[in-house]
Specification:
The chain is of the alpha+beta class. It folds into two domains: about 180 residues, no CATH class; about 190 residues, Beta Complex (Beta-clip-like). Helices cover about 30% and strands about 15% of the residues. The chain has eleven helices and 18 strands. The strands form six sheets. Strands 4-3-8-9-18-15 form a six-stranded mixed sheet. Helix 1 packs antiparallel against helix 5 and helix 3 packs parallel to helix 6. The longest helix is centred in the first third of the chain and has 40 residues. The relative contact order is 0.13. GO terms for molecular function: methyltransferase activity.
């Protein structure tokens, strides 16, 4: 297995759960002010086992449904941003894409128009239960719920998502309430996702610019552009910062950088040698072929960089990844094996057929992609996978189990990395469980 050199201080707080009797449940008592801070009290459960089981299943169903909707919302926003970027570069020539883009903006604009008209009528006291501004009383009620939890900026962004608009009209009330709560909880993530990809939510509001509505004017006010690639921004306590290492900005790239001057033979170590690197993992050809990992992997589109104190920058999923899925490739600057100036992100690059004989190092301290920020766990959700594809060998990141939306994506740096180092991930089979006191202090 490829070995990762870096070692952020991983730590998961070890909480020992108190086992409750099966016929008891926790209920938060309404205490007076001078009793605040007292522990929760055990009260005999009145629900039967069947009722509790049904309630648990219902809760799980709602959670699954809300996660499905949120994943679809991120996908909708990403798709619109891709089409808009192609339009700005005059690349969109297919009729369906252009019509889809126009249709989505028209639907979102109609929802925004209804919302603003309702606000104007309310301002002069003309709204009533029979108001026909919205298509239904449910839509009016749920838009009102949204505004109690979400900013108008966030509502305008969400309005561009078909999944959000469908949930507004068709989902049951409990799913809708949980969805609004999760959107508010992840407001920084959704706003950063939309802004960093160039979503045009302000275009929905331009025709209302002359109206004296404070929240509309606030959304239309100039906002700083998130320049650069979206994986060059880190969410830290609802604020944003650029990732840096050794006082240098960390730049995102989508392929390995090869400089012949770094190698004595001037040859690219990732070029496939059939007798050394085996068959192609896509077409199983023994000789060099034209295969390549085509398209943009989902991991390159639907993950974000988040601070995970005290471990530092980590990666959070913005969709659901399935076991066995290739999330992306590990990219950086190719360096000789004896390169010593990257002790944080350097990854050994070797053929899948030859264990223990690395061909180069992939140094991602300055140039790399999101995979360099994967934190370590002794019970990881992904693994490094050495592959032979077409004319090259590569190192990919593959999911070893299903990964849910908003879950941190982790990887195992390998046991060799943890010699004389301490891993604080807290897993039962942690590499540092057997470390001696001397090794721990070192």
């Amino acid at each position: 297995m490829a070995e990762k050199r870096r070692a952020p201080d991983d730590r998961v707080e070890d909480l020992t759960e108190r086992h409750e009797p099966k016929n008891f449940k926790k209920v938060r008592l309404q205490l007076t002010r001078h009793h605040e801070g007292l522990p929760e009290k055990d009260i005999p459960a009145t629900d039967t086992d069947d009722e509790l089981s049904e309630r648990t299943l219902r809760t799980m169903h709602v959670k699954e449904r809300v996660h499905d909707i949120l994943a679809a919302m991120y996908y909708d926003i990403h798709q619109l941003c891709c089409i808009r970027n192609d339009l700005m570069k005059n690349r969109v020539r297919r009729f369906p894409e252009l019509e889809f883009y126009k249709g989505e903006h028209q639907e979102a604009a109609a929802l925004i128009d209804r919302t603003i008209r309702r606000a104007q009528l309310a301002k002069v006291g003309q709204t009533s239960s029979d108001d026909l501004t919205y298509s239904s009383k449910q839509e009016a009620h749920r838009v009102g719920q949204s505004f109690r939890r979400l900013s108008f900026l966030l509502f305008a962004i969400c309005a561009l998502s078909e999944a959000f608009r469908l949930a507004l009209c068709k989902e049951d009330q409990l799913v809708w309430q949980v969805l609004v709560h999760k959107i508010a909880e992840n407001s920084a993530s959704i706003a950063t996702f939309a802004r960093s990809r160039g979503l045009d939510w302000q275009g929905l509001l331009l025709k209302h610019a002359d109206k004296e509505i404070p929240w509309v004017q606030q959304v239309l006010s100039p906002i700083s552009d998130l320049a650069g690639h979206f994986h060059e921004w880190v969410i830290t306590n609802d604020s944003l910062r650029k990732p840096r290492y050794e006082r240098h900005r960390q730049i995102n790239i989508d392929h390995n950088l090869f400089n012949p001057s770094y190698f004595k033979d001037k040859k690219d170590p990732t070029i496939r040698v059939p007798d050394r690197d085996g068959r192609c993992d896509l077409c199983y050809a023994e000789q060099k072929c034209g295969c390549r990992i085509s398209g943009t992997p989902r991991g390159a589109c639907f993950v974000e960089l988040v601070d995970y104190p005290p471990r530092g920058i980590g990666v959070r999923a913005l969709t659901r990844f399935k076991k066995g899925e290739i999330l992306d490739q590990y990219f950086g600057e190719l360096r000789p094996v004896d390169y010593q100036d990257d002790h944080a992100y350097a990854l050994l690059h070797e053929s899948k057929m030859v264990e223990g004989s690395p061909l180069a190092l992939i140094s991602a301290k300055r140039y790399g992609n999101w995979t360099r920020f994967l934190n370590h766990s002794c019970k990881p959700s992904t693994m490094f996978l050495k592959m032979t594809v077409g004319k090259r060998i590569t190192v990919a990141v593959q999911a070893v189990r299903d990964i849910d939306i908003f879950e941190e994506i982790t990887i195992d740096y390998g046991k060799g990395y943890w010699k004389n180092r301490v891993c604080l991930c807290g897993e039962p089979d942690c590499h540092s469980q057997g470390a001696t006191k001397e090794e721990t202090e070192t």
